[in-house]
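Dear colleague,

Thank you for sharing your sequence with our group. We've completed the structure prediction you requested, and as agreed, I am returning the results in plain text so they can be pasted directly into your records. Please verify that the sequence below matches your submission; if there's any discrepancy, let me know and we will rerun it promptly.
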Amino acid sequence: MSFPKIWFLRHGQTEWNAVRRIQGQSESLLSEQGRWHAAEQAKIMAPILAKHGPRCVASPLLRARDTARIALGEYPFATDARLMEIHAGDWQGLYYDDVLARWPDQVNDQMTALELFAHAPGGEGLDAFHARIRAVLDELTEPTVIVAHGLWGQVARAILRGLDGDAMRRLDNLQGVVYALENGQETVLRAPD
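Please find the predicted structure tokens below.
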């Protein structure tokens, strides 16, 4: 299946990102660094919005909406609950190091964030998360800007690029950039110096 062009923005750093605390679908405010990330994205997005006039949609979680408000300026955007991050179940609100220490039989420090979140007791799990993201992508019919979360973007970018599970787990989750995805290819756009 082919998809329209997508510009993906991960939200800026949050207070919880800065201290390695698991957010999942819990709320955490953008840090000062996170607001700077979104401002960098705004420099990238201004000419794209002016030239292409794409549809824009964001996760309803505060960190994504705040990023969208900064990165998109006055440009309108809708929200879609399916863009929320993977639900990390009982581990939401805990620190990564505490999870590693308390559940050594389930997780280890070699696991990616995606693998760790997918193993969370009471969480969404990778299959349901993947299906939720795929449903969003399958509905897209026009060039679209998506402002969401790191793991959401990691899975979406893998789907859009036709990558397998191992390659998906190795994808980066940069903040302050825009991932442009078209025809199975990805370009990382950065603000000019």
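Summary note from our side: The helical segments are 15-18, 32-52, 62-72, 96-102, 113-118, 126-139, 150-161, 165-170.

Kind regards,
the structure core
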